[in-house]
Amino acid sequence: MNEKQTKIAIIVGAVIILATAMFFSINKNKKEEQQQQQLQEIQPKELPLRVDAVPVTFNIVNENGTNMLDCSFTNNSNVDITSFTLELNFKDTNQATSITFNNLVKAGQTSEIVKINAPASANKDDVEILKYKISTTNGVYMEYDVRLNQYNWS
Q1: Nearest CA-CA partner of 133 in 145, 125, 124, 142
Q2: Which helix (H) or strand (E) covers residue 39, if one does?
Q3: Cβ count within 10 A of residue 67
Q4: Partner residues linked to 136 by β-bridges
Q5: What does the mean pLDDT of the chain come to?
Q6: What is the Cα–Cα distance from 97 to 141, expressed in whole angstroms?
Q7: pLDDT per residue over 81-127, tens digit each?
Q8: What is the tens place of the pLDDT at every residue in 132-154?
Q9: How far apart are CA 80 and CA 103, in angstroms?
Q10: What is the pLDDT of residue 9?
Q11: Considering only CA atoms, which of 49, 134, 125 is closest in space to residue 87?
């Protein structure tokens, strides 16, 4: 091999090495971009409503010798609520029950009062909220599990 052929072989080798390095670099960048896109797609959309924006009020009243649990909520969110359900547990007897509000409650308003039988203890501290289920006028349905501290919505 003469000197000219050696130089050509070195140049060809260098070009091959550079081309291979560029190929892997470009391929790596594409993979990183794809991973970033996938992460963006996986990240949750903004939470539509937090339950602390809909405080619930419980009162125990005696009506004709029967203790009743009066329940209402205030919609301090910026969306109108079409349906609101609370899954409850009465801690004194471990009894599960629920309350549903089906009237429209506009942002800034308070719901009507819904009445159900009170816990046997007649103590409102024995009322434990397990889950919130809320539907809004903009088509969102969401649930909040108090024990898991987890929101789900669609």
Answers
A1: 142
A2: helix 3-42
A3: 15
A4: 81
A5: 89
A6: 21
A7: 999 999 999 999 999 999 999 999 999 999 999 999 999 999 999 99
A8: 999 999 999 999 999 999 999 98
A9: 10
A10: 76
A11: 134
